[in-house]
Amino acid sequence: MTSTTTNRRRTDPERFDLYTRWSLYLLLAGAPFIGLAVVAEVGADAPTASAAWGLCVLGQAVVAIVVCAKAITRFLGGARVSPQWLVVLAAVTAAAAVIALVGLPTAEGLAGRTGGLALPLGVAMLALAPLLSSAVMAAGAAAVALVATAVGAVVPADAQNSTVATFVSVALIVGGMAASFRVSVWMLGVVWEQERTRTVHARLAVAEERLRFSRDLHDVVGRTFSAIAVKSELAAELARRGQDGAVEQMLEVRELAQDSLREVRGVVAGYRATDLGAELDGARSVLRSAGVATRVLGEGTLLPEQVQEALGWVVREAVTNVVRHSHASSCTIDLDVVPGAGDDDLARLRITNDGVERAPGGSVGSGLVGLAERLAALGGELTATPDGATFTLTATVPLAGAVRGSDTGTRSGPGTMGAP
């Protein structure tokens, strides 16, 4: 029911990861453009220093993007950031700071020497923000603001007010950007952790179903196999001693083996065949084990046996798809009887979840095609209705045709649904 790996669509966590990473990379890539504004007022006075500083800022932006990518990977549990990249980042940052300090003149606001110091120091801190704690980021923003203000401050009559304003501006800009980087990476970590949890829940749900089947199989055939082993040993001992009774014991072993074979077939048939009530109970258990909030509606609905079996297959296939192929957080199963054409009532089953992803190109998997064919044999139909993040699978089966095709024609027995 899924496409090939080469054509696989990105999952929601993968898309969020891509968006978050490239948002941070683009912000770092914007540093050289901010640098143009920093040297715009002083470029004519110090053209050589401005050009050298601009090249350093451009190189730093490239290195900062690489370091930031590696820092994000480390935050998500990957490899450590190699010291070589940290050394390169420190080198280009120091070069830009020295050029600003020595070659750029002072100017009003954040232009000239003040901005020339604040920008490379701030970019370096942003690149490392995924690995820094809140206290370290706050101290780093204050240090950047203090250094840039102290070195680049002018001394006019209102020097004190200008210095305070510059300090506050640099601290807020650098600190706010660093906090934004850190929060973005933290959110990315939360998304991936939720994806890992959902995968674990799905695997646990499958493991729970396997344990249920193995438990049923053990309960059914365990006693019989023990009896076969005991009687076989007894028959062998009687034959070894030449006593009567070995033949009778082996005949009993044969009967036990035949009974065990019928019981095993019954267990497998019960696992393969469908009982709507059992399927609804199993769906509730499996979905909740997978972390999907589940609501089952349809208490007291009575259906013919053929309708139960057909709708049971729908429940099984739909729940399997929700667990394996969706990111659903809730699922509603609604069973009721509605008026149909003429006097024929319809059994209607609607299964709605909020996380099924549509196949590329709108293709429908073979499982749903098989369900549609099974329902068509009873005069029913299957419809799949995607609506944004919600996906509804609706199965309808006429009751009159099923009742006429059954021997009893009653609506009782296993078709009675339990309370949600």
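^ that was protein a. below is b, sequence first then the tokens
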Amino acid sequence: MQAIVFTRYGPPDYLELKEVEKPAPKDNETLVQVVAAATNPLDWHIMRAAPFFVRLDTGLRKPKMNRLGVDIAGRVAAVGSSVTEFQPGDEVFGGVNFGGFAEYAVGTEKSLVHKPAGISFEGAASTPVVGFTAIQGLRDTGNIQTGEKILVNGASGGVGTFAVQYAKSVGAEVTGVCSTRNLDLVRSIGADHVIDYTQEDFTRTGQQYDLIYDAVGNRTAAAYRRALSPDGRCVVAGFTTLRQMILQVMLLGSLITRASSKTIGSMGTAQTQKADLLLIKDLLESGKVVPVIDRSYPLSETAEAIRYLETGRARGKVMVNVTEAAQA
């Protein structure tokens, strides 16, 4: 089968399309013929080994694991002897332990669910990582409540577009922060208010929010504090620089949390959870979340897909379509 492989850390130029052995599912695994896969910042962080401590897991001098891609959608090709939920031919989506940029990949019953009939393979594959990140950040870390005023910074990105829609689904009043060219997009997915960050600083408008969900992580702890209501919470789900995360969120944010009724902190790493994947499926089926996809590339152009993702200008998700049926 064909798959994207890299053998040294560095830019997307190091990604190669090669012929590799098709994986065989273990007893508890499901082999999926991949139709579509999503790019995520996780891919380029591992590809570049940035920040450097990524190498502690992936290999100090060269990558021990030479495959990328964790979000997929496709058709079940074969199942292991202990798998009972799926059978060959089923349409599924979810996560794999890397190797999603390929014609075949393996997942488990815990990491895959049936694809909603009315959602394209591309749309389904676009949602797992961003869905886990938005749901677990807003619900588990942020304790989002119906009727609260929520602000999503980075509302037009992959995580942000899902966060806006999920917050609306639980009955929050949502403000989305994005650039001028994305204002209409963020309104179209349900934001009650939008702020153009090129024209206005959301931390200096005088408005305060019960919960700030920051998918960008480019503000100071003092700025977050200024924009929070007296008992407000700020959840930082992404970061622009490692220094900003350590200094502003982990250190100064924790000081503000201890010294006041306001809470500022990061959500940590989102976890693959079957219950949350089923929730994502329900949100897609109900139309409460509509996938937002910027661009799609064929498998042979995965390097270009990740190169575009790295620009930080993507509106929603950047996809890799392994077959022409991905958008059907």
